[in-house]
TrEMBL record:
Top-level taxon of the source organism: Eukaryota
Protein name: TOD1/MUCI70 glycosyltransferase-like domain-containing protein
InterPro entries: TOD1_MUCI70, TOD1_MUCI70_glycTrfase_dom
Organism, as annotated: Hevea brasiliensis (Para rubber tree)
Residues forming coiled coils: none
Domain TOD1/MUCI70 glycosyltransferase-like: 133-323
Length: 328
């Protein structure tokens, strides 16, 4: 199996499928610990199967068990001078440490320092592990137990847009959070939208959350990805969440969106239709053309990996699913 296949989207989709199957199969979850130990004893471990076994342990709340097993396996692989095996197993260990909430320990794992290895997981895991928000804000985030609407502005690249058509009871059930860095916060203060003398900032319905700038990426787009992917972890008690890019304005009540697109359809997720592009390759070409991402070679490699793993040219038979909400 190629590294592209191991870390590609196809495996992520299979893992999502495994998740839904495993939730209904208690025996599979209970056997995951033994399965993981057996797989690690193989002369050439199947990392795809390892990922599946580790995921089952996480699903059953046994992250600590997985951490113990993987730590021993990493030590063994290093003693036997198997660097690639040690690297892949330690990446699984980092993932479990993140799920366990042991971020400092995750950041200290050696595999995250191997900059010479091209691995999309490394910057993502490092982003997950960073002390992203301050403790006082974290308590507020954890208290959101309804719908969390989340956005972010970094490097003052956008402006805060207030949602429209909110119902009379919406703010009783919906929390609005906007992540910003220090540059954006200074501009908000400059325009007298907030007071720096306060430790809690709000602009309209948005609660402003200042992000620690210590470990942020130079590229604001990369920083925005972190809260976007981490919504379920940053707001662990919310029943639903909505991510909205800061360049967009929410035109429909969040409760209506959730009910129309998720609850009534009995689905887990709804994704908005892109106004211009119908295919991933179009997005990649636009990204390269406008230099939205500086490493064009890495972008090309990413798309080649997608194609190797089954991405096919767009045809009219692949019609996108309409949302039914023109202004949403």
């Amino acid at each position: 199996m190629s590294m592209g296949a191991l870390h590609g989207g196809k495996l992520a989709m299979e893992r999502l499928t495994d998740y839904h199957q495993a939730r209904a199969d208690a025996a599979s979850l209970n056997a995951a610990e033994s399965e993981l130990k057996v797989l690690l004893e193989e002369e050439q471990p199947d990392f795809k199967k390892l990922q599946s076994a580790v995921a089952k342990l996480e699903m059953s709340g046994k992250e600590a068990v997985a951490v113990g097993i993987l730590e021993s396996a990493v030590k063994k692989a290093r003693m036997e001078e198997k660097p690639q095996e040690a690297y892949e197993i330690e990446m699984l260990l980092v993932e479990m440490l993140i799920y366990k909430g042991d971020y400092d320990k995750a950041l200290k794992c050696e595999c995250l320092s191997h900059e010479e290895i091209s691995d999309a997981r490394r910057p993502l895991y490092k982003g997950f592990s960073l002390s992203f928000v301050y403790n006082s804000d974290r308590m507020t985030m954890e208290s959101c137990n309804g719908v969390a609407v989340v956005s972010a502005i970094f490097n003052n690249h956008d402006k805060i847009r207030q949602p429209k058509t909110l119902g009379s009871k919406t703010l009783d059930n919906v929390c609005f959070f906007m992540f910003v860095d220090d540059i954006t916060l200074k501009e908000l203060n400059h325009h007298q939208l907030i007071s720096r003398e306060s430790f809690q900032y709000s602009v309209g319905v948005w609660r402003i959350l200042k992000v620690s700038s210590t470990h942020l990426y130079e590229n604001p787009a990369m920083n925005g990805v972190i809260p976007k992917y981490l919504v379920h972890r940053l707001f662990p008690n919310s029943k639903f969440s909505i991510w909205i890019d800061a360049k967009l304005q929410l035109m429909v009540d969040p409760l209506l969106l959730i009910h129309t697109l998720v609850v009534s359809k009995k689905v887990d997720m709804a994704i908005s239709k892109h106004p211009y592009f119908t295919h991933t390759m179009e997005e990649a070409l636009a990204t390269a053309r406008w230099r939205k991402w500086w490493d064009i070679d890495a972008l090309r490699l990413q798309m080649e990996t997608y194609c190797e793993n089954g991405l096919e040219p767009w045809t009219p038979t692949k019609l996108p699913y309409p949302s039914g909400k023109q202004d949403s």
